[in-house]
């Protein structure tokens, strides 16, 4: 079955540095991946997505990389800011449903 | 972007009572909505798929008689936690797809059962 998991539960990054959050998935049939940001007490907020026919996609200050060979994707946040502090989830679609990974808490150091 | 709302945002109830949570798509129609549950410091777990005009489909391990879902219109799905117990205390989140595969999530409902 599908499972999506994250390598690290917590990531501490100095303000201004780049953040890299990693995610592994198990179902090679997954063709659409999404990164979400969740602040405390709120619902998930869409950050960026990527389809399986791509290996890189860039947004504003964020980049998602997809390596289908090793079933791995990552989220890179450039020049991390205090407002980036949150839990980040990778997710993959399965039959129209979105399945979430475990989440990584991003902590910004002053 | 599209907006999904939930009501109430938080609810406290006594054990044994039933609680209804509403999920609305405010500026688009959704024939399908999804309900998730999230325990503290955990990920979102998909509970069920709400289908307008037909029965909901539940994920494995989710009791359909415990979590009643009604998708009465193209903009409203409700989740009723029947005979709630303290272990049902959680953060319940709904989502609805718009613009193809892109899904929008509601702000969540915090349920505390005493």
Topology of helices and strands:
The complex is a heterodimer of chains A (110) and B (114).
Chain A: E1 4-6, E2 10-14, E3 19-25, E4 32-38, E5 45-51, E6 56-58, E7 62-67, E8 72-77, E9 86-94, E10 97-100, E11 104-109
Chain B: E1 4-7, E2 10-13, E3 19-25, E4 32-38, E5 44-51, E6 57-58, E7 67-73, E8 76-81, E9 90-97, E10 103-105, E11 109-113
Parallel strand pairs in B: 2-11
Antiparallel strand pairs in B: 1-3, 3-8, 4-5, 4-9, 5-6, 7-8, 9-10, 9-11
Structure description:
The complex is a heterodimer of chains A (110) and B (114). With 110 residues, chain A is mostly beta strands. Chain A has no helices and 11 strands. In chain A, strand 9 and strand 10 form a beta hairpin. Chain A is globular, with a radius of gyration of 13 Å. Chain B has 114 residues and is mostly beta strands. Chain B is built from no helices and 11 strands. In chain B, strands 2, 4, 5, 6, 9, 10 and 11 form a 7-stranded mixed β-sheet that branches. In chain B, strands 1-3-8-7 form a 4-stranded antiparallel β-sheet, with no helix packed on it. Chain B is globular. The N and C termini of chain B lie far apart (37 Å). The relative contact order of chain B is 0.33. Classes of the chains: A mainly beta (110), B mainly beta (114). The A-B interface holds A 32, 36, 41-46, 49, 89, 93, 96-103 and B 1, 4, 6, 32, 34, 36, 42-46, 49, 91, 93, 95, 97, 101-108, 110.
Q: Give me the Rg of chain B, rounded.
A: 13 Å
Helical content class of chain B: under 10%
**Content-based structural category of chain B:** mainly beta
**Percentage of residues assigned to helices of chain A:** under 10%
- Please work out how many helical segments of chain B DSSP would assign: 0
> How many extended strands of chain B?
11
Q: Provide mean pLDDT of chain B, rounded.
A: 94
Unreliable runs of chain A: none
Distance between the termini of chain B: 37 Å
Tally of strands of chain A: 11
Give the DSSP E fraction of chain A (strand runs of 2 or more residues).
over 45%
């Amino acid at each position: 079955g599908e499972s999506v998991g994250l390598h690290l539960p917590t990531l501490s990054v100095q303000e201004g540095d780049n953040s890299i959050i990693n995610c592994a998935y198990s179902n090679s049939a997954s063709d659409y991946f999404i990164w979400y940001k969740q602040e405390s007490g709120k619902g998930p907020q869409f950050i960026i997505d990527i389809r399986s026919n791509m290996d890189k996609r860039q947004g504003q200050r964020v980049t998602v990389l997809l390596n289908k060979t090793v079933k791995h994707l990552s989220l890179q946040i450039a020049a991390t800011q205090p407002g980036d502090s949150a839990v980040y989830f990778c997710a993959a679609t399965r039959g129209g449903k979105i399945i979430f990974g475990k989440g990584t808490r991003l902590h910004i150091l002053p | 972007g599209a907006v999904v709302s939930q009501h109430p945002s938080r609810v406290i109830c006594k054990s044994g009572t039933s609680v209804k949570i509403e999920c609305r798509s405010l500026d688009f129609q959704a024939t399908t909505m999804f309900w998730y549950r999230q325990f503290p410091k955990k990920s979102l777990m998909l509970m069920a798929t709400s289908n307008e005009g037909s029965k909901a489909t539940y994920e494995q391990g989710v009791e359909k008689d415990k979590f009643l879902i009604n998708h009465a219109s193209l903009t409203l799905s409700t989740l009723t936690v029947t005979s709630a117990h303290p272990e049902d205390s959680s953060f319940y989140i709904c989502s609805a797809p718009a613009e193809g595969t892109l899904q929008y999530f509601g702000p969540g409902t915090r349920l505390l059962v005493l």
